[in-house]
Amino acid sequence: MKKGVDLSTFDNRDYQPGPRWKRLTWYWINAWIMDSWIPFYGLKRSLLRLWGAKIGKGVIIKPKVNIKYPWMLQVGDHSWIGERVWIDNLDQVTIGKHCCISQGVMLLCGNHRYDKTSFDLFTQPIAIQDGAWIGAKSTVLPGSFVGENTVIQAGSIVKGKIEDDLILCQNNELVSKKRTFL
Quick check: 93 and 74 in contact, CB under 8 A? Predict the structure, then answer.
């Protein structure tokens, strides 16, 4: 019989994304202010900067946004982060200028090794280049790169490198080779 996962052997002690006090304090700030219905963009930008995020000017952060570790987040000027976005940045997340991260998007920098009985954690950064648009309820997986001016249609799963100026739908299927503006 094939052996499956043995969670009693899971050991995550090597992963230290910051001091424990910092992670615990941010947890409460995130819960009370970021992941709430508070609509004040300036307050959210200020808190994120205070906690080490690099946040550009004019960034819009809608209500109910969950950010795991702001010290591993960079967002360029005039980008939007929609309602109920979850930035699970166990590694660096870089979002360029003029990007739209639509409502319900999940940016996931970590996962577990299903091929190991100990279910080891692994992390990889995510980079979303200038002008990209991640459609509602899409999921961007660890190690993904989304090129400039690329549109990811709603409900898609993004994995790997996506070139510039593309329109993609679910499972990285190409819809159009060039994004054109009217």
Answer: yes
